[in-house]
Amino acid sequence: MGRDDHEEQATMDKAAEQTVTTPASTPTEDAHDHHGNTPAAWTAVVILLIAFTLGAIAIVLGPNWVLFWASVALAAVGALIGKVLQLLGFGTSRH
């Protein structure tokens, strides 16, 4: 083992000895514990996933520009629906 190997081993040993401690809970963590798991978010994600899938199929199979632009419109509608659902109380509010 060369000098570099000993230095690398010493560095690895020091890293293994260190432990990371985190607080159990903070006030901001409690307010954002859901990570966007709301009906508004899931509805928007599903609609956007369908829109992007249709858009990809439209480009691969042709290109079929009518289907592509319809998928762009569907993506815009999906984003709008997600925002409307959030405003109606099915999402989270910003603090």
Automatic annotation (TrEMBL):
Question: What InterPro entries has UniProt attached to this entry?
Answer: DUF6704
Q: Where is this region: Disordered?
A: 1-36
Instruction: Spell out the Polar residues composition-biased ranges.
Output: 18-28
- Which ranges are annotated Basic and acidic residues under compositional bias? 1-16
State which residue ranges cross the membrane. 40-61, 67-90
User: Matching Pfam families, A to Z?
Assistant: DUF6704 (PF20447)
Q: Which UniProt keywords apply?
A: Membrane, Transmembrane, Transmembrane helix
Record flagged with keyword Membrane: yes
Q: What is this protein called?
A: HGxxPAAW family protein
Species this protein is from = Kribbella deserti
